[in-house]
Amino acid sequence: MIWDEVFPENVRVENDVVAMQHSEQGCAMDEATFQTFYRKVAPALRSYLRRVCSDRALADDLLQESFYRFLRTASLGKGENQWKAYLYKIATHLISDYGRRLKREGSRFPKAPSSEDMEIDRVADRGDLGKKVILSCDLARVFQQLKPLEMALLWLAYVEGAGHREMADTLGLKESSSRVLLFRARRKLARLLRQKGLGSEVKP
Question: Which partner from 1, 28, 86, 158 sits 20 to 30 angstroms from 35, CA to CA?
């Protein structure tokens, strides 16, 4: 069961209590609801974490921690869109916290693997060049040169198809700020691509 896979045995009783509390507050995140939501959201969230971390084991750990913290939070919205936005917000904060810890230790996230070693994530081909750039194995190293917030903005915009308001809610920004920061992130990615001789797939 997905519930058992995501949460270690010693916290399942606690999660049952949390789920009951959510139900009393109108959130109704019982096991069946959670499993349905997990199947819808986990693949894309795992891809996002792996793209940023370039470490499958770490990404899987952060995925589990994200869902764990998600279920422990009592003040959840009542719809899947709110749940998804909050889950991505948790995951992004975990990435930032881990990155700061690595920086204090004089380390950093591992470099992205080569295209020969990296599994290409399956996504719907809608012809979005921004999405293709972000998901391309050959350009993963370029994408990883961005800051976590920049990666999050580009991922949400071009892979998840999020609007400015949704990105702002997910990342704890003002809507106007999300517009400016996304523009800057897109421009930075385009500059990095040109420096690598990869052309102008993403125009600033």
Answer: 158
What are the helix and strand counts (H, E) for the chain? 10, 0
Start-end ranges of CATH 1.10.10.10 in the chain?
Answer: 114-204
- Assess whether pLDDT exceeds 60 at residue 95: yes
CATH 1.10.1740 is the classification of domain 1-110? yes
The DSSP line for 82-123 is HHHHHHHHHHHHHHHHHHHHHHHTT--PPPPPPTTTSPPPP-
Q: Is 111 exposed, middle or buried (0-12, 13-18, 19+ CB in 10 A)?
A: exposed
Give just the sign of the alpha carbon dihedral 90, 91, 95, 96: negative
Per the confidence metrics, is the pTM higher than 0.90? no
Task: Say if residue 9's pLDDT is above 50.
Answer: no
In this structure, CATH architecture of domain 114-204: Orthogonal Bundle (1.10)
CA 76 to chain centre: 18
- Contact 130/154 with Cβ under 8 angstroms? yes
For helices 164-171 and 148-158, angle between their N-to-C axes, nearest 10 degrees: 140
24-28, 59-63, 98-102, range with the lowest pLDDT:
24-28
CA distance 48 to 40: 14
- Of the CA atoms within 13 Å of residue 188, those in its CB half-sphere come to 17
For the stretch 141-162, pLDDT in tens is 777 788 878 888 888 888 888 8
